[in-house]
């Protein structure tokens, strides 16, 4: 009778038919240097003015200092002594009074009392204004403000979502320039990992490549990007290490990390390389977007041209195309804004007998992307990764696959009943139909391989298969001209 009920009850039943959400495709992962990036700032507040002012500054730099508050009160009794107390995060200063009950504490007295109190001095330090000889005034409860954490801690993933954060990147190193190049094209969510500038190129390269410590479970350099989802809730999908990716071993390290993230590494060539060296590098890389040519900017402050590697600019350009057209569209033959040209000349001929032999076409033929001038505008030119796969197709595979995996995390450890198997299959098919309706894919279907699953009974593993159909990217348009005299027959009819 323990489960007996005379009445009405209600249950909430999980809905297994929830649509599969597509994961974000356009987050950039950036590894860069910036030794003078903004450090942590201390919160502070100033009460009073001139010689009567006291500035309270948090001992611990960073945001935690902003929760500290200060109030200045006066005892109603005459001849009261100056006292300081701490309750939680509130510091109370009770001013001394003379035998008439008037305030008898100077700013210097208050600063000294605060700095001598064992409980308070570990939270704030006080500084009197001027010579501190003025009488301290009363003050309502006032919070310290202006405390900020270190903008870009070493080997720590930091999310950048606004160009205002560029101002915290300092002037040295590569971070400020890379973020600026991204934002010349588009607003973008960027996961930044700052690494230390070494004493020489070899040390800096080692810092960029980084390492992973299995004991602490933490990585440095490029390896830090693997922890971005756990720390920030986003997965970098376009990886760049502008001004470092052209160095030997850096590109290979980027590919390794990208493979774990299902991301696309955008790797620069050395701007001084010959065509043979560029092609050789392309064949060394497994599945990267290899970019040659760099970018040229005009610096209005320095009144000179700046030549830079182009991976940050192109990453921002890809994000802009993603936002405007969708990640399943090619970013090639879309205009790149706010650049003066390429850092090194890249010959491009759009038609005629030299179109196939121009440098831009030869780079593309060897799976190398570049930037070309078309009728006065600058355009990204090239679709293929170094393994010959069209970049949008690879990105679709990654995003669709990861979205399906993420959507089914809650399905783990359930009983593999017939309804369970069909529910998963139907959910994937609904996603594929939705993608087909949006012209992301040309088709797709999920099915259950009965024989495969029967053979796996007792192993705890179940299988679903699905396929994807991609739309071709129209890289080569061919028009065939026919000359005929049949239209002249009407003259004599």
TrEMBL record:
* UniProt superkingdom: Bacteria
Q: Where is the Tail sheath protein C-terminal domain?
A: 399-484
Query: What InterPro entries does this protein map onto?
Result: Tail_sheath_C, Tail_sheath_structural
Q: Which organism is it from?
A: Endozoicomonas montiporae
Identification of the protein by name: Tail sheath protein C-terminal domain-containing protein
The family classification in the record reads: Belongs to the myoviridae tail sheath protein family.
């Amino acid at each position: 009778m323990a489960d007996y009920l005379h009445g009405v009850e209600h249950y909430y039943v999980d809905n297994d038919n929830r649509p599969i959400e597509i994961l974000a495709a356009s987050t950039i992962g950036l590894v860069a240097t910036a030794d003078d990036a903004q450090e942590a700032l201390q919160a502070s507040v100033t009460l009073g003015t001139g010689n009567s002012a006291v500035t309270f500054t948090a001992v611990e730099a960073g945001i935690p200092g902003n929760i500290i508050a200060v109030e200045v009160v006066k005892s109603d009794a005459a001849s009261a002594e100056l006292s300081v107390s701490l309750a939680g995060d509130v510091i109370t200063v009770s001013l001394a009074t003379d035998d008439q009950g008037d305030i008898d504490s100077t700013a210097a007295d208050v600063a000294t009392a605060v700095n001598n109190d064992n409980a308070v001095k570990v939270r704030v330090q006080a500084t009197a204004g001027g010579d501190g000889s003025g009488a301290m005034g009363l003050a309502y409860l006032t919070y310290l403000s202006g405390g900020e954490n270190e903008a870009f801690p070493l080997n720590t993933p930091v999310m950048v979502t606004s160009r205002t954060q560029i101002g915290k990147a300092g002037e040295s190193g590569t971070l400020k320039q890379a973020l600026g190049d991204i934002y010349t094209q588009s607003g973008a969510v960027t996961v930044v990992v700052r690494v230390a500038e070494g004493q020489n190129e070899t040390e800096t390269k080692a810092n960029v490549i980084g390492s992973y410590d299995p004991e602490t479970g933490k990585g440095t350099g490029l390896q830090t990007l693997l922890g971005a989802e756990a720390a920030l809730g986003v997965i970098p999908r376009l990886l760049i290490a502008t001004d470092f990716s052209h160095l030997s071993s850096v590109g290979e390290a980027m590919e390794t990390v990208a493979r774990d993230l299902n991301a696309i590494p955008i790797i620069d060539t050395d701007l001084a390389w010959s065509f043979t060296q560029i092609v050789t590098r392309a064949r060394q890389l497994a599945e990267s977007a290899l970019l040659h040519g760099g970018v040229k900017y005009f610096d209005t402050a320095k009144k000179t041209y700046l030549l830079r590697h182009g991976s940050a600019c192109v990453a921002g350009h890809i994000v802009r195309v993603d936002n405007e057209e969708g990640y399943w569209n090619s970013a090639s033959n879309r205009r790149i804004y706010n650049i003066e040209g390429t850092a090194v000349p890249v010959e491009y001929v759009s038609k005629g007998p030299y179109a196939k032999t121009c440098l831009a076409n030869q780079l593309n033929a060897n799976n190398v992307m570049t930037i070309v001038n078309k009728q006065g505008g600058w355009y990204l030119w090239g679709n293929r990764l170094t393994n010959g796969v069209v970049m949008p197709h690879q990105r679709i595979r990654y995003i669709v696959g990861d979205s399906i995996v993420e959507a089914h995390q809650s399905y783990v450890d359930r009983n593999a009943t017939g309804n369970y198997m069909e529910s998963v299959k139907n959910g994937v098919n609904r996603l594929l139909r939705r993608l087909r309706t949006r012209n992301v894919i040309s088709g797709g279907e999920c099915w259950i391989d009965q024989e495969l699953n029967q053979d796996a009974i007792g192993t705890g593993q179940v299988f679903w298969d699905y396929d994807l159909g991609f739309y071709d990217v129209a890289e080569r348009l061919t028009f065939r001209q026919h000359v005929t005299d049949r239209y002249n027959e009407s003259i004599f009819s």
